[in-house]
Amino acid sequence: MPRGQKKAPLDVINEQLAKVNSQIENHQEKINKLKEQKNDLLKQKQEQELLALSEKIKESGKTVEEVLKAIE
């Protein structure tokens, strides 16, 4: 049974490089999406922390200026 012509070693390497580059690109897209998700979560966390801090300041009966002076 006849076989196809064997590919040159350089052709095989080039195909493998193309495949690896494609995989890198796919993973980079996933990494970028995860970084966006991380940034969104960090923003939500900061908002919640500021809200909690604001509530504690109100509960204390002090003004923001008084709390800032106490921290300095």
Could you walk me through the main structural features you see in this protein, from its secondary elements to its overall organization?
This protein is mostly helical. The protein has helices spanning 9-60, 64-71. The protein has one domain. It has two helices and no strands. It is rod-shaped and about 90 Å long.
Shape assignment: rod-shaped
How widely separated are the two ends? 86 Å
Radius of gyration: 29 Å
How many structurally independent domains? 1
Number of strands: 0
How much of the sequence is in beta strands? under 5%
Order of helix and strand elements from N to C terminus = HH
Provide the structure class: mainly alpha
Can you tag this structure with a few keywords?
rod-shaped; mainly alpha; 72 residues
Reconstruct the topology from this structure.
Elements: H1 9-60, H2 64-71
Summarize this, please?
The protein has 72 residues and is an all-alpha fold.
